[in-house]
Amino acid sequence: MAKYLTLWEMDTSKTPVDPKEQATLYGKQLEMVKKQLAEGLINDWGIFAGGGGGYAIGEGDATDVFKGVLPFSPYAKFKTQPVLSVDEVAEVMKSMMG
C-alpha cells in the first residue's frame, strides 16, 4: 500500500472574511479531519505554526487521496506526493547491487 504526503494551503480567496464565519468553517473542517483520522483515511495531520497551511499523511491509492481532499474543496489547495519508507529505499538499493 502506498504512503502519501499531502501538503495543503488554505485558499483565502474562497474563505469568509468575517472571523466568526471563518471559525465556523474551520471548525467543520477540523471535524472532517478528526473523522478521517478515526476512519484511518489519514494517519497524521498538522497545521504549520504560522497557520494557513499544513500536511496530512495517509496510505492507500490515488482514489483514497482524492477521497480525502475532495471534502475540503474549494477552501484548500493540495499537493500530494507518494513517499517511500527507509525500508523501501533500502530494498531498491539492495536490488541495484546485483
Overview in brief:
The chain is an alpha+beta fold and 98 residues long.
Give a structural overview.
The protein has helices spanning 19-39, 62-69, 86-96; strands spanning 2-10, 44-47, 53-60, 76-83. By secondary structure, the chain is α+β, with helices and mostly antiparallel strands. The model has no long low-confidence stretch (mean pLDDT 95). The chain has a single domain (2-96), classed as Alpha-Beta Plaits (2-Layer Sandwich), CATH 3.30.70. It is built from 3 helices and 4 strands. The chain starts with a strand and ends with a helix.
What's the topology here?
Elements: E1 2-10, H1 19-39, E2 44-47, E3 53-60, H2 62-69, E4 76-83, H3 86-96
Antiparallel strand pairs: 1-3, 1-4, 2-3
Shape: elongated
Task: Let me know the number of strands.
Answer: 4
Major sheet size, sense and barrel closure: 4 strands, antiparallel
Q: Can you name the CATH architecture?
A: 2-Layer Sandwich
Spans where pLDDT lies below 50 across 5 or more residues: none
Range of strand content: 25-35%
Domain count: the total is 1
CATH superfamily: Dimeric alpha+beta barrel
The number of helical segments is: 3
Gyration radius, in Å: 16 Å
CATH class designation: Alpha Beta
Spatially, the strands of the biggest sheet line up as 2-3-1-4
Average pLDDT rating: 95
Class per helix and strand makeup: alpha+beta
The residue fraction in helices comes out at 40-55%
N-end to C-end Cα span? 25 Å
According to CATH, what is the topology? Alpha-Beta Plaits
